[in-house]
Amino acid sequence: MECSDKHQFEKSPAGSLDYQFDWSAWLGATDKIKAVTCSIDDGLTAGSQTWTDTAVTIWLSGGQLLKSYQVRCTVQTEGGRMDRRTALLTIRNLSESSASRVYHVPADPDRVDLSPEGPHYG
């Protein structure tokens, strides 16, 4: 399975967790998210999805151990822009503190920001 953005999340098989796509750098200071569509591969279960002016949060549960799933997030903005990002969620046995659940969408769409800055969850 290919993930074009190369960003990866991890989750334990029993976990039900929130995963966030942070679009603030991409949006800049003046644009805001006005509509969101999230989709996931079969085998995962999506709970609620919410968004603010700059971030999208989706709750995910389920999944088969050692299998990877794509999580896609598409936003439309008040300024008329539209973009979709895809992250890979791999199901692993892991400790609660071992994985980030925030994807910082880069301002440059050709570069994925995997830096440790920003509001990561531990």
Descriptive overview:
This protein is mainly β and 122 residues long. The protein has a single domain, classed as Immunoglobulin-like, CATH 2.60.40. The protein contains one helix and eight strands; from the N terminus they run ββαββββββ. It has one helix spanning 24-27, and strands at residues 7-11, 16-22, 33-40, 44-51, 55-62, 68-77, 82-91, 102-104. A four-stranded mixed sheet has the order 1-7-6-3, with no helix packed on it. A four-stranded mixed sheet has the order 4-5-2-8, with no helix packed on it. A hairpin with a 4-residue loop joins β6 (68-77) and β7 (82-91). It starts with 6 loop residues before the first strand and ends in an 18-residue tail after the last strand. The relative contact order is 0.31. Residues 1-5 and 110-122 have low confidence and may be disordered.
